[in-house]
Amino acid sequence: MASYKTVEIKEDIISRNNQGASRIREGLKGKGVFYLNVMSSPGSGKTTLLKRVIDRLKGDFCIGVIEADIDSEEDAGAIAEATGVKTIQMHTGGACHITCQMSEEALEALGVDGLNFVILENIGNLVCPAEFDTGAHENLVLLSVPEGDDKPLKYPLMFEVATMVAITKTDVMPVFDFSVDRAKENIRMRNEKAPVFVTCARTDEGVEELTEYIRGKAEGICGRK
Amino acid sequence: MASYKTVEIKEDIISRNNQGASRIREGLKGKGVFYLNVMSSPGSGKTTLLKRVIDRLKGDFCIGVIEADIDSEEDAGAIAEATGVKTIQMHTGGACHITCQMSEEALEALGVDGLNFVILENIGNLVCPAEFDTGAHENLVLLSVPEGDDKPLKYPLMFEVATMVAITKTDVMPVFDFSVDRAKENIRMRNEKAPVFVTCARTDEGVEELTEYIRGKAEGICGRK
Fold first, then answer.
1. Which chain B residues have a beta carbon less than 8 Å from that of A98?
2. Structure pTM?
């Protein structure tokens, strides 16, 4: 009986979250603000890849960044210093994911007036953030080479909700048993549509292709410059 | 008001979980069965390190392994094939952590009669599993070199609940910006006591030291052979 109750509570929470997320998404679209949610395991290279992508886009968009972490200020400092764009650090107080309510509060704290492109770097967690729609227009999911090409099999929902996937840290491929083909096959078992970009922030491999794809999606919301 | 309610539910769940976990721990101790919980991010090398540790211990203990995953059978297959010890695969149905109830059901499904050493490989997640005491006697937490030495700062609770920490994949240190000293400092900010082992399953670095430490803890529960 206890488990029935838990399921009902969870479904109710998620259904209410999704309604709120749709409101956020529509509201931002009405204002011409593109909202990108970036998710992955801890240490997959979200911050480093984002620095490269932001550097390529900041001349054409007014970008703001929300760095979500349980603790520490490291990522917000790194992004602000490297790119100069408006950045806030959000602490979740132990929470393992960002709900639409937390997303809304972070957007308010950041302040979207004057911006047309907001990036949320979600908590490093390949499980829970996938369950909670943040109201973003696109979900970029990273899979780093050191994690292994089997991860889409073991963490299905994350790869189902992805609208684009970036394989990261390809420069270390020679020292890991990672096959891009196997990774793509495993991603395809979870997601038939999301394009997969093979990237490396250090060598710049694939960063241009990923950036141009994101640019196209952003222009669809905030209009072509 | 909604948030007050959520906190109460969560505290109640965790307090009930911890009571159940204490019962499991005491029950296993009474039977002379040592229970080790292994936690880390996805892809930190739990399965590979465990294969090496089990190989060193299986002559002296009767070992059983519970592989917890959201989906896929990969890890149970890998452990069973490599080590020959009794192994079960547990699927959490989407859940991001193992509660004491799930832990108890898995122990029953494995069957502890005839065993004196059980290993739980928890869900790959650096956040949620730390909140739920599984009833294990020891918590081994892995931090892999590719993840970065800053992770103990960003995921505090996981390193607080650790009773031993293994830095893994040290063979790839030359291609990553990872400092063992910095990692140890960051772990010490979260945990003053847990010993830190510098390991590599591929080269066998540090595996003997970690194994001998685990052996000592196991002998404390199931008696010296």
1. none
2. 0.93
